[in-house]
Every structure is written in structure tokens, then in C-alpha cells.
Amino acid sequence: MNHPFHRNHNLSLLVSSPYPDGIIRCDFCYEICERFVYHCSCGLDFHIKCALLSYNTAEKRIAEFQHIPRIDPLISTENRPQKLENAQCFACWKPLLDSVHLSPDFVVSLARYAKSLSVWDLFTHVHHIVSIECVTMPTKVNKLFHRKHPLILQIVNELLPCQICQETQLNEAVYFCSKCKFVLHTGCASPPPIIEDKIHHEHPFTLLQKQVSLACDACGTLGNYIPYVCSTCNIMVHKKCISLPQIIQFFRHHHHIFQTYFLEEHGFESWECKHCYEEVNTEHGSYFCSKCNYIVHVNCALEQPHFYNVVDTIETDEAMEMSFQHVTATSIKHFSHYHNLIMSEDIVGDKQCDGCLLPISASYYCCSQCNFFLHKSCAELPKKKHIWYHYHRRLFRLTSGCISQCAICVYKTSGFAYNCDECEERHCLRCALVSDSTRCEGHEHLLRAYPNCKGLCNACGGSTEAAYGCKSCNFTLHNSCMRLPLIARHKYDEHPLQLAYQDNNRYSLSDYCDICEEERNPNHWFYHCAICKN
Questions:
Q1: Is residue 302 a contact partner of residue 308, using CB atoms and an 8 Å limit?
Q2: Fewest beta carbons less than 10 Å away: which of 117, 137, 525, 534?
Q3: Distance from C-alpha of 254 to C-alpha of 112, rounded to nearest angstrom
């Protein structure tokens, strides 16, 4: 078959699958082909019924469909099968009940070409119904924004973006110029000349009837596309960028961030995106928090649906509620304890913080009536906190007085933990308090959290996937190694052990661990006792 939707090659009728796994899927309706199939060596496959229907549509053999009743969902009162309510046109994949479509009974007429179909297929394959709009769409169009050649309706097996909406569709019928690699989705063939969306922008946008090479003023993406123009603001944007959300809650920042088309210079040499850590061109759009000078590329902020929540313009940031109240200048009432706590500088004996469960070596609060201690920093933690790596946007609640298992490090703790009220995940303090950009005593530069950071951890030597790193120094740390406590205790040593980052000891005995007695790498981090030299 010489199919008008695939003009480069002929389609061959095969009796079985040409693929090693035996599975073949129709590129028109996406159903598995079980019997005869039209196949092209470039990977295009059609059911017989789909090949003939699309052929008749492309060749405008409308007479083939004249005997099939039309159904207008706006005026039709007939009972519909439940599956038809959610059906889509199998040519354009728009909701079927949004437009006039051929009656489902035409499945019977297609049975002349594909003997395997029956009336029962109506209920199991309701998406084999096509809208009148798709049956009657022209096979060739001429557009002002592509004057050189006509655009031909065909299926393209290249991943090319539509010049209007910038979306990509593989193996679907589009208007295409093979010489210029120009793609126009069928739904974008008649783009609106003017788009007015006062919720997202105060002025109307007008379609520029010309393909231009420039960077979108909303998202900053370079490319050749047909833009919409706001002549009042002197900006050109993608069609999809006209309706960018104005305010979002981004998962890596605790304040709302606002969409902006440009930023004035504030004395900074350059702006760095806080998600990908690449430079942000402030002459184009971004999301920005003026409270923190926090900036993110538009495409980084909106990359995944779970990265952000759209915020109503009247919503405000949740206030950071503190977990204590001052009673006097040196005493507080903390939510986690019955009695008042008194500030102390007396570092005597082996005291352990009841919040983070680590040894106390600096200022702390204590109870004069019972054996209860809190680091000053642990006592002053906020009652609610934003956890940057968690996708639920509600603030986590500080809890105490129970044993819980941290969802990140999987250790159990009887100390403080932050709890997500949406999914009931609990995160220990060591995991919850590490930010996405932080400093570590084992390295001189700022370390950043990277979702893809393959290498070897400088602390333990293990391989990494997601990790903290300094790209300029090729320095990498596991998330767990980043959270190692500076001081720890072990039952085999009476003194506190301190974290060390390099071994300057030249004695060969120091190359062995005093606990397991196995050889260790002197270039990796370790705990040691300065008193016992262990």
C-alpha cells in the first residue's frame, strides 16, 4: 500500500510480526496487532482497519463513510455505554464527546476489512471511533508562517516539536514539511490570532505569522518557533508560556516564588539556578523569591508536576511557629517537656541531648527537676518546618516522646522528628536539617545536592548516584556521609570520638580499624579518640 500518511515508503501486508519478541502495536490506535498488519521497515505499523480508515480519510473518500450515522453529543439523547463517556477520537485523541463523531456502529462496516471485529468490540475498543473533524481535515495546507512549501498531512517517525505548541508527538498524523523539518500538529493548524488571558498577563498576545529564531522571553529557551507577541511589554513567548503560573510553591524552597519576565541588576555578578546550578539569564523569564534572592529557571521549576504547587494570589506563606516560649531571660517553656528549662554552660560529664540524641558539648537547656537536656539549637527548632526534598508542600510538624523510624536513613530514634501529616513519614533531625546547599568541615567549598551525581564518595569510597558534590573539585559525598555527626560515642571507648577527614599518622598500625581490626583506607574519613589514639 502506498499510504498518503507515509509517503516515503510503501507499506507491506504481513501475516505475522516482523519483530523478535512477536509483539506489534498499531501506530494509529495503539492496540496490539494480532493478525495481518501493514508494516514499514522504518518501524511504522497499522491494523488493516486503521490503514484503510486513515487511507480513506487522507484520500477524501468520504463516500465510504456517508452511510455511517453522525452523533452530536450536544443534542443526542440516546443512552451511551459507560466506556464511551471516557472515549477519545483515535485519530486526534481529543475527548470524543466534545465534538460530532461517527456512530459506534461503524465498527460493523469496518468488519468488511478486518474479520476479527464484531459489534461486541464497541464495548472493549470504544476508542476505535473517529470524530467528523478528523475525517474531513484537509491533507494539504498553506500557512503564512511557512510560505516556502505546503504542509502535508502524514505520520512522521521523527521526534520533532510542533512550531506552535512546542510539544512532540511520535507516529501521529501531523502537518509536515519534509524539506524544512517543519511540524504542525493538526490541533495547532489554525492557531488563534489573539490570546487574551488576563489571569496570567494584563495585555493580549498576538500571533506573529513568521517563524523566528530567538529565546522565549518567558522561559528563556532558544529555538526556531512561531511566537506570540505582547507589543505593550515588548516580549515574545511560546504559546504554552502565555499561561505560566504566576506564583508557585517550589519543593526546594520554603517561600512562594514568583514568575517574572526579567530581573533588574542588584549588584550580583551572575544569578545561579538553585535547581540545576547553571547560570540564569535575567533578561528572560524565571521564578524568583525576593526575600532570599532565590532564583530558578522556569523549565527547572516546572520540569515535573510534583516539583511545584500552583499558589493562589491571595495565599500567604505559612508562618514559622517556634517550639518554645521565654519564661525569663535564661529559662524557657518547651513543648516537649513538662517543666521549665534553664540555660546552662556547664559542660561536665556525659550529657546527651534528648532532641538529637548526640553528646552535648556547647550551650544547652536543662531541667532542674529531672534528667532532661536539649542543645540550645535543638530547643530553638521551629515547630513547623519546610523539608526541601519532600514533595508534599505542607510544613512538617516537630514531634517528640515516641520512637519513630526515619524514612531517609531508616534509623529508629526516640528523639525529635519532623512528621508529614499527609503521608505520615517521619524524618529524624539529622536528615531533616540538612539543606540542599550546605558546608562541611571536610571540604572548603559549598556542597550542593545533585539528583544525578555518579562517582565515588570521598568519605567512604562507595559509588554514588544522588549525592552532594563540588563539581570544581570533583568532590562527592553520599547523603548519609554528609549527615555524619562530628562527635560520636562507642561502647568500647570511654571518651567521645571525633570525626577526622584525613590521616596524617605514618605508623602502619593506624591503617587498621581498632573495632573490627580490618584494614582501612587512610584517605577515607574515620572516627578517632585523641586521648587514647584509637
A1: yes
A2: 534
A3: 62
Helix (H, G, I), strand (E, B) or coil at 64: helix
How far is the CA of 66 from the CAs of 103, 135, 250, 254, 307, in angstroms? 11, 11, 53, 60, 49
What is the rounded distance in angstroms from the CA atom of residue 375 to the CA atom of residue 362? 7
Positive or negative torsion for Cα 521, 525, 531, 534: negative
Each residue's pLDDT, cut to its tens digit, for the chain (534 residues) gives 877 777 777 888 888 888 888 888 887 777 788 778 888 887 788 888 788 777 766 665 545 555 555 555 544 445 555 545 556 665 555 665 555 545 444 443 433 333 333 333 433 344 445 555 666 677 788 888 888 899 888 877 778 888 988 888 776 778 888 888 899 888 888 889 999 988 888 899 999 988 888 899 999 999 888 999 999 999 999 999 999 999 998 988 888 899 999 887 765 567 889 888 889 998 899 999 988 889 999 999 999 888 888 887 666 666 567 888 888 878 999 999 999 999 988 877 778 899 998 888 888 999 989 889 999 999 999 988 888 888 787 889 999 988 989 998 888 989 999 999 888 899 999 888 888 888 888 888 888 888 888 889 999 989 988 889 888 888 999 988 888 888 887 877 778 888 888 776 654 456 788 888 888 888 889 888 878 777
Closest residue by Cα to residue 179 from 154, 205, 222, 150: 150
Task: Determine the longest span between alpha carbons in the chain, in angstroms.
Answer: 96
Q: Give the count of beta carbons closer than 10 Å to the beta carbon of residue 295.
A: 24
d(CA 458, CA 444): 13
Backbone angle region of 82, left / alpha / beta, with phi > 0 → left and psi within -120 to 50 → alpha: alpha
Q: How far is CA 316 from CA 77, 251, 468, in A?
A: 47, 16, 32
**Cα distance between residue 340 and residue 354, in whole Å:** 15
Residues whose CB falls within 8 Å of the CB of residue 445, separated by 6 or more in sequence, listed in order: 470, 472, 473, 475
Element (H, E) at 514: none
49's enclosing H/E stretch is helix 48-58
Instruction: Measure Cα distances from 184 to 138, 141, 151, 207 in Å.
Output: 13, 10, 8, 15
According to DSSP, the residues that pair with 200 across neighbouring strands are: none
Q: What is the DSSP letter of 288?
A: E
In whole angstroms, give the CA distance from residue 294 to residue 438.
Answer: 15
Instruction: Determine the residue type at 174.
Output: V
Locate cell 536513613: which residue? 409
Torsion sign across C-alpha atoms 129, 133, 137, 143: negative
Which residues lie closer than 8 Å to 217 by C-beta, 6 or more apart? 235, 236, 237, 261, 262, 284, 285
CB distance 524 to 500 below 8 Å: no
- Residues forming beta bridges with residue 427, ordered by sequence position: 418
The CA angle 353-355-358, to the nearest 5 degrees, is 45
CB distance 407 to 425 below 8 Å? yes
